[in-house]
Specification:
Helices cover about 15% and strands about 35% of the residues. A hairpin with a 2-residue loop joins β9 and β10. The radius of gyration is 24 Å and the shape is globular.
């Protein structure tokens, strides 16, 4: 019932939940970058070192470079044919290199190779040539890229498809060879923003 003698007014309903600020919601779907990162950090992932060899620009020029990148967005896609996929940030050195270089390697890191994952995920790091210096590796016969010694498994891959997906590129590749240099160790995992191991 409205108060007597006055114009009808809309009753005030107390607001129990504050409305999200414009800064908190950055996407039309209603999830902020921070919320998305926090949710996905709860998804445990294996850690892979993706490697490729950048050939020299000319036969008489400087020698080619080995390039490495730590990846946690790496997965098996198909058994027949054997396909894997890795997600690369658009404009990263590895994304640019794999757009030109079709063959590359992947080393599935073991729990005692955290230092390798850390050094190849650093921002503003020194040259990759120095990062590889004290790491034991064999060079892939097909891809020519470093394959880490003691890794749980190593793969040589050839890109078959590149799919643009937001700010990343999904690289789908056929596995050309697979080896198990260190099959008895535990996997290196990435969970809630940190490298971890099972157990």
């Amino acid at each position: 019932m409205w108060p007597s003698g006055g114009a009808a007014s809309v009753p005030v309903v107390p607001q129990t939940t504050p409305a999200p600020s414009a800064e908190a919601i950055l996407h039309a779907e209603g999830v902020s970058d921070e919320e998305f990162r926090a949710a996905m950090s709860r998804l445990a992932a294996g850690v892979v070192l993706v490697t490729a060899h950048e050939p020299p620009l000319a036969d008489d020029g400087p020698r080619g470079e080995d390039v490495g990148m730590t990846a946690t967005a790496f997965m098996s896609v198909s058994l027949d044919p054997p396909l894997v996929m890795v997600s690369l940030r658009n404009g990263s050195r590895m994304d640019d290199l794999l757009a030109e270089q079709p063959v590359w390697g992947a080393s599935l890191l073991s729990e005692n190779q955290r230092h390798i994952a850390g050094r190849f995920s650093m921002k503003g790091r020194i040259s990759d040539r120095l990062l590889f210096e004290d790491i034991a590796y064999d060079r892939g016969e097909v891809c020519g890229a470093p394959l880490v010694g003691g890794a749980l498994a190593v793969l040589e891959c050839r890109t078959e498809q590149r799919v643009e997906a937001g700010d990343h590129t999904l690289v789908i590749a056929r596995v050309l060879s697979a080896g198990l240099p260190g099959p008895d160790g535990g996997p290196l995992m990435y969970f809630r923003g940190r490298y971890r191991h099972l157990g």
